[in-house]
Input
Amino acid sequence: MKLWKYILGILAFIGGIIALSSTSRKKSKKEFDDKVKTNKEKIKTVQVETRKIEKDKKETQIQISKAKEKTSNTKKQAKNTDSTKKTVDSFEKKYRKKA
Output
């Protein structure tokens, strides 16, 4: 009779270990699933932010190109001042710089 009790005790012990190991696997799987969900949510938020940044980037590029056009137009309209500098220098030599 004692032998049966020991065998039954060993089987119960082994069954308990198996039961505990199966519950820990379920917990680890739940934790893994939770981490996957949070990572997916983070990915979605990052994607939304990148879309906004891409739109802003396009808008700023358009503004930069408009500013370049304006500066090129104003440079075209500006006159060359080399000849006026020469005439001012010659005037100063003739009339102003005499001591």
